[in-house]
Amino acid sequence: MTLSHWSPILALFLLGVVFTACEPTAEPVPMQITASIAPETQWSGGPMTIRSPQLQGAADDHVVLTVQYHPHDWHIPDPYVPPTFFLDIERVADDQLSFMVPPMYSGSYEVRLAIHGFEPVSLQFGVVGLTQWPEGVLAHYTSTEHGLALPGGGVLAAAEVDYWDGPRGYVFVNLEPWAIEVVPGLEEDRDNNRVMMMYVPGPSFRPNHVVVDLSPDDSVAEVWKVGPTAGSFEHVASAPCGGGSGSERYTAAELSEGHCLILDGWEGRLVDNTGTVLAEDRGLRKGEIRLAPNGRWAVPVTGKGRIDFNDFELSGAIPVIASNGSAAYELTGYVELPDADFTAEGDTLFVIGARSVPGKDAREWSLDVLDAGTGTPFAAVAFADGARLSAVLVDPVRPLVYVGGHVGSHPNHTLYRTSFLAVLDRPTLNLIALVPAPEEASSFGGVLAFGGSSGRIHLLVSCGWDCGGLRDYAFDTK
User: Fold this and answer.
1) Which pLDDT band, with edges at 50, 70 and 90, does 461 fall under?
2) Residue closest to 328 by CA, chosen among 301, 296, 355, 360
3) Coil, strand or helix: which one is 150?
4) Where are the domains of the chain?
5) Reading across the β-sheet that carries 107-115, which strands appear in turn?
6) Does residue 361 have a pLDDT over 50?
7) Contact (Cβ atoms closer than 8 angstroms) between residue 38 and residue 52
């Protein structure tokens, strides 16, 4: 066969070669990532761990972690698609990485893991933290500079507050559902221009009872029982807890039958109902009294004024008082001690306090844990520079301790600042989460309270009369 006979066949072969050479080369199918995330639900601000065999040998710059969410300080309508944020990651093992949960609202989320050469994978996880908080004006002239958190939930707070003159009534701050409820018998009396002698109601050794003085000048303290429904109170009896000793404004606590503590709010003088002076320190000015269950122990605490650095700091020791009214031991070294709480058994005392440090403008704040009966220190947790603490609450059911406070840009924090909730493991005092509030405000004071059956923790702060007064930040728990 001559070449001319092969020409058509050769042409077809060459054409086939050309066609074959022009066919697109198929891209290799990316390999799938197998990964797991733990824990399934975590606190906002807590650590998460991702485990994947595909991480082995992957360079750090070939691993990307992203998540979509609405930051706390973004007030965006729900239909708006949340932005995507890159997460900082840390290698904890060749096949594991960890990241800190950003300040997210409570809910379900997906984190997207991308590794070079693999198909990205999404992992679901849950977050507990800040809930959608009430916005706008919550309660003008209702202040948590002073407020008594009730065991069953809610706060008994002063209403129509005049900073120097005192409250004109008390209201129950119902946290779930959120409402300011007038308490019959404790309401404001504008017609008679009544100003309460007691600037904050006091605790009682009787479970679910409070001590209230409704008189403008006679200083007759009464014991009221917290009723079966939210915001209901029933008068029980008079108590030997009157102001006395010429007190202009005071608060009190009923330690046991016939034993009371009275704290003069202007002079910072702590006396019992016989007039015996137990402490006298201007640092206790406008302070309060914290009581252990059944009145086993009582601790006076310093005020939570609008100016973070009070006019007067503690100059001496703070006594811890037994149920019979005698001083058991003293807390020393503090210049501020704004709050304290006890375990449900009353055997362990948690206090938050500040100490002055030579050469530093800001004070050093810490959570200190002591034996309630002897004052023997068990442990302490120091908070970072820039933090100022205002409240502490021991969870009676879960092994957790909550600390409320705020951080600000000024060393003394008298400008705008952001409130926060710190969650600590009670046995170890390890920090579990640090959850910021959704706004920066000129807030002061702070009361931590349980919301009720939901298990939420509420941090109530006052924000001045020009920005809504009372603010309530609610946090889910797990």
Assistant:
1) confident
2) 296
3) coil
4) 33-128, 142-475
5) 41-43, 121-128, 107-115, 63-68, 84-86
6) yes
7) no
One-letter amino acid identity for 334? Y
CB atoms within 10 A of CB 96: 16
How many CB atoms neighbour CB 400 within 10 A? 18
CA distances from 280 to 126, 145, 396 (A): 50, 21, 32
Q: Which two tokens stand for residue 144?
A: 């948590």
In contact, 405 and 446? CB cutoff 8 Å: yes
Asked if omega into 134 is within 30° of 0 (cis), the reply is no
At 222, list the tokens. 């009464």
Report the pLDDT value the prediction gives residue 127, as an integer from 0 to 100. 93
State the fold for domain 33-128: Immunoglobulin-like (2.60.40)
CA distance 452 to 129: 16
- Interatomic CA distance for residues 256 and 262, integer angstroms: 13
Cα 125 versus chain centre, distance:
23
Q: How far apart are the first and last CA of the chain?
A: 89
- Rounded CA gap, 340 and 324, in Å? 20
Q: Which residue has the higher pLDDT, 124 or 198?
A: 124
Confidence of residue 247 (pLDDT cuts 50, 70, 90): low
The CATH topology of domain 142-475 is Methylamine Dehydrogenase; Chain H (2.130.10)
What is the distance between the alpha carbons of residues 444 and 466, in angstroms, rounded to a whole number? Answer: 13
Q: CA 314, 315, 320 angle in degrees (round to 5)?
A: 65
